[in-house]
Amino acid sequence: MTDKRILEELKHHFGFDTFKDNQEAIIDNLLQERDTFVLMPTGGGKSLCYQLPALMMQGTAIIISPLIALMKNQVDAMRTYSEDDGIAHFLNSSLNKQAITQVRHDVATGKTKLLYVAPESLTKEENIEFLKGIHISFYAVDEAHCISEWGHDFRPEYRRIRPIINAIGNRPIIALTATATPKVQHDIQKTLGITAAAVFKSSFNRPNLYYEVRPKTKDINKDIIRFIKANEGKSGIIYCLSRKRVEELAELLRINDIKALAYHAGMDSATRTQNQDDFLHENVDVMVATIAFGMGIDKPDVRYVIHYDIPKSLEGYYQETGRAGRDGGEGKCITFYSQKDLDKLAKFMKDKPVSEQEIGKQILKETGAYAESAVCRRKTLLHYFGEDYNQDNCGNCDNCINPPKRIEASDELANAIETILMVKESFPVEHIANILIGNNDDEVKRNRHNELELFGINSNRDFKFMTSVIRQGILAGYIIKDIEKYGELKISAQGHQFLANPTSFLIAEDRTFNDNDGEEHTSAAAVLDPTLFSILKQERKRIAAEKKVPPFVIFQDPSLEAMATTYPITIDELKLISGVGEGKAKRWGDSIVNIIKRYVEENDIERPEDFRIRGNPSSNDFRIYLIQGIDNRHALDQLAKDKGRTMEELLDELERIVYSGYKIDINYYINETLDDYFRDEIFEYFQTAQTDDLQTALDTIMGDKYEDEDIRDIRLVKIQFLSEMGN
Questions:
Q1: How far apart are CA 36 and CA 173, in angstroms?
Q2: What 3 state SS string does 215-282 have?
Q3: Strands 114-117, 60-64: parallel, antiparallel or unpaired by DSSP?
Q4: Which of 254, 359, 283 is nearest to 616 (CA)?
Q5: What does the DSSP assignment read for 662-722?
Q6: Which of 59, 260, 350, 617 is deepest in the core (most CB within 10 A)?
Q7: What are phi and psi of 257, to 5 degrees?
Q8: How far apart are CA 381 and CA 475, in angstroms?
Q9: What CA dihedral angle connects 244, 245, 248 and 250, to 10 degrees?
Q10: In CATH terms, is domain 410-504 a member of 1.10.10.10?
């Protein structure tokens, strides 16, 4: 069939005048009934590679696809190109008997050119028997990486595709994926029995995508909302690992006036479908989802993809980020990273077979190394997929826009290469790094590598630095990682040449991510204004002397630190400071905001553009419950028990309540549970104390002998004291 004919069919069915990249060669190969393997990034036009041949060839193409949502989207898209809805159908568990009958009728009469089938449906005996009786043009295995255990979305049922095809009847096979390392590609071809297939690889480089990795802190929700507000009206996807997180974040976004919906496999099918359609039809801007969403979703104008949690593999990361900017326009890919997330993912694998665990660990290590690397993100990603990227600076990732300092590491690389050769090229990155820094761990001792001449030769460097040297040596082509042998390192010809004649080797030091997931960052010492902080402390002291109470009763230090960081100049802004609240703002706030306002004007301060996100009302339920319970004079321990909280958690919440300026009275409970003399002694202590620190109070009142009950009692009286004297 001539190229001209293919172009005419392209124009006739899809309205396009030209093909993208190597689409035409792929289609021509399939039209000649040859097995075909297609490796093409998201947005490259994979679907057309089997859609057009299906319309041009005799019979029905069987498209094997993993997700119901994907099938529906593809079928809906195909029907827009034809006057007859029967042109494309899907066959899966979501259909009732009447719908299945209609599908089979359209297929049997030759009306249907594309039949989408889930691998689970393909295994059913009645479907196998039905498909034996029709003329099949070819089989298309979409998302083919699901076949491989080394892929990011392994599905055991995909392993059964080849035997089923043998049972139905052999026809040409086209396997397509957007993410496959050389190892995964080999697995796909071997498992499908198409090792002789023509292979078509497109570049994995998406120049329009911006890649950035940020540290994950407790401020992540604020960071995300700020980002979305700055990109108002643009479509975006936020990926979370857990369904619970998806639901909570979607609700939080809606509370903050962002049009967002949730999507995960735990929802009923109708809700998932409706939410997906609302996103595609631009009724909402943001979809918060697990990885169940997005595979095959044909929305070209997604402008950002945010990963709330680091993905478990670089394949998954690449595919999910690839849903941004499919039209070649703007695409921002922001990922939040914490080592704790990788640790959680590792724990999820503990019940899997040992071989799968080992594979999973290797994949997680690659993901962590990518996140912490200071090397060009694009270069690292493309290398992972077996593609070279020779530019030093891509100009469109965080590491290239803000390049780190580069350090000479020629000696360290030479030591690493020599050590790899000494251990007969049979060990991974971490083991070589441990030898070089002199870490005498169990694996090193077991192999007697602590006796090597180079053991500890780089003891002046830490483990992180030496692993970075090795990984950047891999990127530079001096070292080869054998992924099939669990990451064993080999030396390339280029590496042998370097060892014989070392040259300069500059590396970028890996980024440091403090493992502070869940920590608050309100004081922000790095941007604290020390002069203003000192002025505010003096004003607090003046107010305290006037009211005859300790300074901490007025405002705690963290509240003053926040004021000296964000410069609130109105009462409403002051109320947003943690630990202030409405009561304290009204009682002590006038002099504070006047001081800050005058200071800002006199020193020409540019205040930070910040905002307060509205919280989920459900997070305040416990506080409201406590206040109501105290008003009704219920026992505090019973209030805690009724809500499944510990007494310590209840006291934490009560402290937050009184520190924010809300007045409560728990004397009824204190009088029942504490001796009068002990209660008065604690109260008198806080009247003259210079700090509300609990440990100082314990040491002063109890000495070095106290029990948990004493801690509870002192906290109770402190809460009552703060409420009476400060609120």
A1: 6
A2: ECCCCHHHHHHHHHHHCCCCEEEEECCCHHHHHHHHHHHHHCCCCEEEECCCCCHHHHHHHHHHHHCC
A3: parallel
A4: 254
A5: -----HHHHHHHS-HHHHHHHHHHHHH-S---HHHHHHHHHTT---HHHHHHHHHHHHHHH
A6: 260
A7: 65, 35
A8: 10
A9: -120
A10: yes
Helix (H, G, I), strand (E, B) or coil at 644: coil
pLDDT at 171: 95
Sequence ranges of the domains in the chain: 3-201, 209-400, 410-504, 525-602, 617-726
Please tell me the predicted confidence (pLDDT) of residue 526: 37
> Per the structure block, which two tokens stand in for 138?
């070819």
Q: Which fold has domain 3-201?
A: Rossmann fold (3.40.50)
Position 253, amino acid: L
Helix H or strand E segment including 331: strand 331-337
Query: In the CATH scheme, what is the code of domain 617-726?
Result: 1.10.10.1390
Q: Is the CATH number 3.20.20.70 carried by domain 525-602?
A: no
Cα 47 to Cα 37: distance, rounded to the nearest angstrom: 13
Q: How far apart are CA 149 and CA 577, in angstroms?
A: 50
CB-based contact 498:557 (threshold 8 Å):
no
Residue 351, SS3 per DSSP: coil
What is the rounded distance in angstroms from the CA atom of residue 322 to the CA atom of residue 324? 5
Bridge partners (DSSP) listed for residue 697: none
Angstrom distances, CA of residue 515 to CA of 175, 340, 341? 41, 7, 10
Give the span between the Cα atoms of 445 and 435, in whole angstroms: 10
Question: Given phi > 0 = left and psi -120 to 50 = alpha, else beta, which region is 193?
Answer: left
**pLDDT at position 92:** 77
Beta pairing partners, 238: 288, 306
Largest CA distance in the chain: 101
- Looking from the CA of 2 toward its CB, the CA atoms found within 13 Å total 3
E strands, 27-168, in order: 36-39, 60-64, 88-91, 114-117, 136-141
Instruction: Name residues of the chain where pLDDT drops below 50.
Output: 1-2, 296, 516-526
Give the list of residues 6+ apart from residue 191 with CB closer than 8 angstroms, or none. 147, 148, 158, 159, 161, 162
Nearest one of 158, 162, 59 to 115, comparing CA atoms:
59
For domain 209-400, give its CATH number from 3.90.1010.10, 3.20.20.140, 3.40.50.920, 3.40.50.300.
3.40.50.300
C-alpha 338 chain-centroid distance: 9
Residues 6+ away with beta carbon under 8 Å from 489: 420, 425, 427, 428, 429, 432, 470, 474, 479, 480, 481, 482
In three-state secondary structure terms, 131 is: helix
Q: What is the pLDDT of residues 36-74, one digit of tens each?
A: 999 987 767 888 999 999 999 999 999 998 876 677 778
Identical fold, 209-400 and 525-602? no
- Which residues are CB-contacts of 598 (< 8 A; sequence separation ≥ 6)? none
Task: Tell me the C-alpha to C-alpha distance, in Å, between residue 260 and each of 177, 367, 711.
Answer: 29, 28, 45
Each as own residue / partner, the long-range contacts of residues 483-488 (CB below 8 Å, 24 or more positions apart, any chain) are 483/150, 483/181, 483/182, 483/183, 483/362, 484/183, 486/358, 486/359, 486/362, 486/428, 487/362, 487/365, 487/428, 487/429, 488/425, 488/426, 488/427, 488/428
User: SS3 sequence, 87-101?
Assistant: HEEEECCCCCHHHHH
Write the single-letter amino acid at 219: D
Number of residues that this document lists for the chain: 727
Q: What is the pTM (predicted TM-score) of this model?
A: 0.64
Given a contact cutoff of 8 angstroms between Cβ atoms, the answer to whether 224 and 308 are in contact is: yes
Token pair of 60, please?
Answer: 């029905």
Contact indicator for 628, 640 with CB cutoff of 8 Å: no
Contact 75, 88 (CB under 8 A): yes
The pLDDT score that the predictor gives to residue 478 is 93
Residue 578, judged by CB atoms within 10 A of its CB (0-12, 13-18, 19+), counts as middle
Letter string b/e over residues 558-570, b meaning 16 or more CB atoms within 10 A of that residue's CB: ebbbbbbbbbbbe
Specify the 3-state DSSP secondary structure of 197. coil
